[in-house]
Task: inverse folding
C-alpha cells in the first residue's frame, strides 16, 4: 500500500460540514461530487499528501444513511492507495479478509475502489483505491 489516500467522514449535512472543514483547513473543498451508485454526495479537502472525504447520504437506503442512523456522524472509513487494486483484492482474499466487492467499482474522485468488511479489520471499514489513469 502506498499511503493513506483519504479518511471518509459521514456527515448529516454536507453544506454545513463543508463550512466547518473550510474553516478548519482555511481552504474550500477542491471537489464535490455526487456518486449516484453509492447514494452519496461527497466533497474532498486536501491535507498535505492525504485528503478528507465528507459523505452525506442522498438515499435513505445507502450505507452512509444506515451508518449515521446506527452510530451518528463520524469517521466512516480509511482509504489506502494501491497501485494494482485487482492484485490487492486477490491478496486480501487469500489472507482471509472479507472483500465486499467481487470487482473494483468506480468510486468518487476518479478512483477504482473496493471495501474490506470491518469484521475482518478490527472494526474499521477499509477502502482500497487505485487512481484511474
Ligand atoms: Zn472513500
Result:
Amino acid at each position: 500500500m502506498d499511503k493513506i489516500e483519504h479518511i471518509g467522514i459521514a456527515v448529516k449535512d454536507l453544506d454545513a460540514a463543508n463550512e466547518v472543514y473550510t474553516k478548519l483547513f482555511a481552504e474550500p473543498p477542491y471537489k464535490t461530487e455526487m456518486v449516484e451508485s453509492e447514494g452519496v454526495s461527497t466533497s474532498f479537502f486536501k491535507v498535505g499528501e492525504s485528503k478528507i472525504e465528507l459523505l452525506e447520504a442522498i438515499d435513505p437506503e445507502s450505507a452512509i444513511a444506515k451508518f449515521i442512523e446506527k452510530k451518528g456522524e463520524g469517521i466512516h472509513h480509511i482509504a489506502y492507495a494501491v497501485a494494482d487494486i485487482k492484485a490487492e483484492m486477490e491478496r486480501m482474499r487469500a489472507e482471509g479478509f472479507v472483500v465486499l466487492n467481487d470487482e473494483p467499482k468506480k468510486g468518487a474522485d476518479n478512483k477504482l475502489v473496493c471495501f474490506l468488511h470491518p469484521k475482518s479489520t478490527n472494526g474499521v471499514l477499509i477502502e482500497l483505491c487505485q487512481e484511474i489513469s
Q: What stands out?
A: The first strand starts at residue 3 and ends at 11. Strands lie at 3-11, 31-35, 40-47, 50-57, 74-81, 105-107, 111-116, 125-131.
